[in-house]
Amino acid sequence: MASPDLFPNVSFSHVSAPAAAGTSTEVTGGATAVFGRDASTGAPRLSLVWSGETQAKHTLEIDLSDAQIFKLGPTEWLCVSGESEAKDGVEEHILNGFMLTLNSLRQKSYSRAIKVVLRTEAESKAFYLAFQQWKHRVISGKAGEPLENGLIIGSKSKFDTKIEASSAKMYFHYYGQLLHQQNMLQDFVRTGTYYAAVMENRSDFEGRVVVDVGAGSGILSLFAAQAGARHVYAVEASEMAEHAQRLISGNPSLGQRITVIKGKVEEVELPEKADILISEPMGTLLVNERMLESYVIARDRFLVPGGKMFPTTGRIHMAPFSDEYLYVEMANKALFWQQHNFFGVDLTPLHGSAFQGYFSQPVVDAFDPRLLVSPPTFHTLDFTTMKEEELYEIDIPLNFVASVGTRVHGLACWFDVLFNGSTVQRWLTTAPGSPTTHWYQLRCILSQPLYVMAGQEITGRLHLVAHSAQSYTIYLTMSGWAFSISFVISFFPSIALEADGSCSFGYFLEAKMWGEGAEQGGILQTSTAKLELKEPYYRLSQPQPYVMQQDQQQQQLPSLQPQSPLWDYHYGQD
C-alpha cells in the first residue's frame, strides 16, 4: 500500500478540449505522485516525478491552492489547475470524456488539466483523500504527526454563514480538549448504549462504509471497525482530530480501516458514499449546539439512498412540574438586589431585572420524576427524513391534564434517541428516574407559577428559535384555570319526623358561588418565559428527596413572588 503522501507507479497525461475530439495525448507511466509543500512559499502542491529517456528526473508541479479534482473512473482522476476568471455565461469543456460545466455569473477556467491513473481502487481513494487533505492543509495521515488547522476557503460554507466565528472558535476549542472528551466517555450510559447499539447490529456495519460525523476522540469509529466496517471516515473539525489519529493508530488492527479527516462535514469531500452514518450530535434539550443540522447535512452529502443513521430518531419529552424548593432557590438569587443600603446605595431599582434574569436561565440538573404534575408528551425529530431548515425553528404545542392540585412552576424537558438497527432497536434515554447521563434533564421555570386542580387542562407552547451562537432562544407559554370565586354559606333550619313519631330539629347547609370563572371552574391564567438555552444554570444535583405537596406549600415565601397568589376566598354568612 502506498504512503498517504506518496504514490508510486502512476500514469498521467495532459488533457485538453481537443483531446476529447480525437486528439491523442502522450501518456507518461511509471511516475511517482508526491504531496508536499513548496520550499519557498509553503503552499501545498502535488508533484509528478518521472524519469525521461536519458534517465534525467522530470517534475510536473500542480499548485493545490487553486486546483480541483474530479473522478473519471474507479482509478482515474482529473486534476485541473491554473484558475482564472472567465466571461459571463456557460462554459463547457469536454475533458477526455468528462464534462466540466461552469454555470455562474463569474465563471472559472483552468489553464491545465492532468489525468492521473492509480494502480488500484484502494490507492485511488487514498490519493483523493490526500489531495483534499493537502489542499485544505488538513492532516498528513501519518500516525502521531502534528495536524494543521484548515485554511478558510474563499466561499463560506453553510456552517460559516449560520454560525458566528467567535462561537465556533470556542466550540471547537472546548471539544478539542481531552478532559471534555473524557467526561463524555465516562458517561457509561451514553458510551455503553452506543457500543451495544453497534455490536448488536453487526449486520448493519459488516463490510460497509461508515462516516463518523463529529468523531471527537474517534471512539465511535473504533466501535464501527470492531463491528466489521470495511472502512470508516472519521470527520472531526476540532484539534481533537490529532488525538483521534493517535488513538486510532495505537489500535492498528482497527485503525488500518479508519481514516481521520480534519474538517467540517459541510466542507470536506469523501472519495465514496457511506452506507451508514454514526454520530453523537445531541446537546442539552437534544438540539443545543446545533450539531443536528450538521448531522442532517452529512446525510444529504454522504449517505447512499436508504442508508442507515445511528441514531435514527430523536424525541423531546415535556411535562409540567412542581418544585417549591427550586422556585425559592431561584428567587433567592435576586435577594441581593433588595438591599436598600449597600454601602449607601439603594439596589432595589434593579431587583425586578435581576429576578427576571435568573428566571431566564434553564436549570440543568437531575430531578425526582414524582415532581411531574402530569404524564409527559413528546415531539419527534426523524433524522432520516427531516430537512435541515426544520431545525431553525421548532414549535411544539403543549397540552396536559394535571394529575394533582398544586402550583406548576414550569416545564421539565428531556430527550431520548433511537438506534433503529436491523437486528435490535435500542434507545438512549435521559429521562428522570433513569440512570443519570452527562446531559441530565432541563427545566424551564416560570417566574409566576400557575395554580391548577386535579383534572384541569394545562395548555401552552414551547417555541425554540435557533441563533448564530449555536443554540436556541426558548419561548415558553403555559396556561391553566385558577379560581377567584366568592362563596356564601347559608344555614337553614330543618325539622325531621322520626320513625317513632317524635320530631328532631337541625340545620342544613347550602353553599352558593359566583364571580368570574364560576361556571367554567375558574379564571384563565397565563404565564410566559423567555430563556437562553446557551446560558443555563448548571445545578447538576442528584435527584432531590421527594416532598409531599403539603410540605412543599409550607416552604413558600410569598414575599419573594412578584405578584400575590391568585387564590382569593371571600366568605359570607346569612
From TrEMBL:
Pfam families: PH_PRMT_N (PF25350), PrmA (PF06325), PRMT_C (PF22528). It is an enzyme of class 2 (transferase). Residues 6-136 form the Probable histone-arginine methyltransferase CARM1-like N-terminal PH domain. GO terms for biological process: methylation. Keywords: Chromatin regulator, Cytoplasm, Methyltransferase, Nucleus, S-adenosyl-L-methionine, Transcription, Transcription regulation, Transferase. It catalyses: L-arginyl-[protein] + 2 S-adenosyl-L-methionine = N(omega),N(omega)-dimethyl-L-arginyl-[protein] + 2 S-adenosyl-L-homocysteine + 2 H(+). Residues 546-566 have a biased composition (Low complexity). It comes from the Eukaryota. GO terms for molecular function: histone H3R2 methyltransferase activity; protein-arginine omega-N asymmetric methyltransferase activity; protein-arginine omega-N monomethyltransferase activity. Residues 546-574 are annotated as: Disordered. Gene3D superfamilies: Hnrnp arginine n-methyltransferase1, Vaccinia Virus protein VP39. It is found in: Cytoplasm; Nucleus. Its main location: cytoplasm. GO terms for cellular component: cytoplasm; nucleus. CDD domains: AdoMet_MTases (cd02440). This is type I protein arginine methyltransferase. It comes from Oryza glumipatula.
